[in-house]
């Protein structure tokens, strides 16, 4: 191929992504950065004929240039199918939550959860990722266009149209990575996040979506090192996964055999096999104007087992007005409360923060949500 032809092909490819966001509009908070890996162990691998390091987790430490003003740092757990980049500058070029909390004087740790991004592993099976542009628009950036559930109509805060071709959407979609989510990941994030806390000392957690599962598991693993957990639409419903795109309306599939994880958790009385947890359906499917409005939930039937380690850290659980999570987040909150966890369940619309979808930390009014989180952190220091 002639160089000029190659150049022409490259230019065409470039044109396909409307207009990249490029350098930021609003500068990130001034900070010093340090990168390291926490956890991990050397093992001999016979197939590879040598020793390899496995299970290490990428950590980015950001220290405010003006120094720390709070006694405990914040560890950020990103959601599924995206990396720690979710906490840096937003898709519209404005500063995100890492900057917000740096400016408030917090030392911030950003993980790439094990097997994701810069924590990807050499011995993982390939992942099938069926997340098309359409599914991302439906579930995250433009649910109001598709109206697959009642609350979708209230979504207004995603920058721009939330559709392919809008620069903010294109930037958001480009950041997405293959979704890794399995029991082995749960075990490893618990161990390697606790290894991080052994190094940095007690910390607050801020998690999003599937990252909430990693944060609960780390609390289970080393509860005395967790000051509190701000769970933004954490994880999914207990024992069940609902279809977040709501394409199949009432689609659910069994998941999380131990309630909120597929690996054993510290329950009292102890649970050595998932069959010891009695599942009890509560509530029912509700519709409004012919659209899905609430999912039923599964709680524990008697005897109720308490999550004694996870219960040692208070939780602020946030759910937005228009995310698909408004259909089922009450299920996880009820399950946690029943298991002895102290949860402050705040529906953002109830405190006047309206129009957000699932990725609220990347939406226009992200600072309003961060300000509310800050008020909770400060009272729990
Ligand atoms: C050794 O490495 C191979 C190839 O990467 C991988 O498939 C296998 O799971 C590893 N074995 C162990 C015991 O980790
Ligand atoms: C979000 O911000 C963009 C500018 O970045 C603006 O055009 C849009 O109207 C804003 N949307 C809302 C709901 O405030
Ligand atoms: C997770 O760890 C437990 C022990 O804590 C072990 O029994 C189980 O096999 C592990 N599961 C996976 C998938 O690695
Ligand atoms: C929805 O799912 C629940 C639980 O699987 C089932 O009991 C119910 O019949 C389903 N409803 C509809 C309308 O499909
Ligand atoms: C939940 O946390 C917020 C923020 O600190 C606080 O204003 C509110 O009173 C709390 N709600 C409950 C029920 O504790």
Automatic annotation (TrEMBL):
<dbReference type="InterPro" id="IPR000073">
    <property type="entry name" value="AB_hydrolase_1"/>
</dbReference>
<feature type="domain" description="AB hydrolase-1">
    <location>
        <begin position="74"/>
        <end position="365"/>
    </location>
</feature>
<protein>
    <recommendedName>
        <fullName>AB hydrolase-1 domain-containing protein</fullName>
    </recommendedName>
</protein>
<feature type="signal peptide">
    <location>
        <begin position="1"/>
        <end position="18"/>
    </location>
</feature>
<keyword id="KW-0732">Signal</keyword>
<dbReference type="InterPro" id="IPR050228">
    <property type="entry name" value="Carboxylesterase_BioH"/>
</dbReference>
<dbReference type="Pfam" id="PF12697">
    <property type="entry name" value="Abhydrolase_6"/>
</dbReference>
<dbReference type="InterPro" id="IPR029058">
    <property type="entry name" value="AB_hydrolase_fold"/>
</dbReference>
């Amino acid at each position: 191929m002639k160089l000029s032809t190659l150049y022409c092909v490259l230019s065409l490819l470039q044109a396909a992504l409307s207009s990249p966001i490029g350098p930021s509009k609003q500068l990130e908070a001034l900070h010093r950065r340090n990168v390291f890996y926490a956890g991990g162990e050397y093992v001999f691998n016979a197939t590879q004929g040598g020793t390899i390091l496995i299970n290490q987790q990428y950590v980015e430490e950001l220290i405010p240039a003006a120094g720390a003003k709070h006694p405990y740092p914040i560890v950020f757990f990103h959601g599924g199918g995206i990396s720690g980049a979710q906490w840096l500058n937003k898709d519209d070029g404005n500063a995100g939550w890492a900057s917000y909390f740096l400016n408030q004087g917090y030392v911030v740790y950003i993980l790439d959860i094990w097997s994701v991004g810069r924590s990807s592993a050499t011995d993982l099976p390939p992942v099938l990722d069926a997340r098309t542009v359409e599914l991302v628009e439906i579930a995250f950036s433009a649910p109001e266009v598709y109206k697959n559930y009642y609350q979708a109509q209230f979504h207004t805060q995603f920058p721009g149209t939330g559709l392919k071709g809008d620069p903010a959407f294109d930037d958001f979609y480009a950041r997405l990575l293959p979704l890794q989510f399995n029991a082995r990941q749960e075990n490893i994030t618990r161990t390697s996040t606790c290894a991080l806390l052994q190094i940095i000392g007690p910390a607050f957690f801020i998690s999003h979506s599937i990252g909430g599962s990693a944060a609960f598991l780390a609390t289970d693993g080393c509860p005395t090192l967790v000051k509190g957990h701000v769970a933004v639409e954490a994880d999914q419903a207990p024992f069940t996964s609902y279809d977040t795109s709501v394409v199949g309306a009432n689609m659910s599939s069994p998941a999380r055999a131990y309630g909120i994880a597929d690996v054993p958790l510290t329950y009292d009385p102890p649970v050595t096999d998932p069959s010891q947890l009695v599942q009890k359906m509560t509530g029912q499917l509700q519709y409004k104007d012919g659209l899905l409005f609430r999912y039923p939930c599964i709680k524990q039937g008697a005897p109720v087992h308490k999550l004694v380690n996870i219960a040692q850290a208070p939780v602020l659980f946030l759910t937005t007005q228009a995310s698909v999570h408004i259909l089922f987040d009450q299920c996880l909150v009820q399950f946690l409360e029943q298991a002895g966890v102290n949860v402050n369940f705040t529906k953002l619309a109830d405190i006047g923060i309206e129009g957000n979808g699932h990725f609220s930390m990347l939406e226009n009014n992200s600072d309003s949500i961060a300000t509310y989180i800050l008020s909770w952190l400060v009272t729990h220091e």
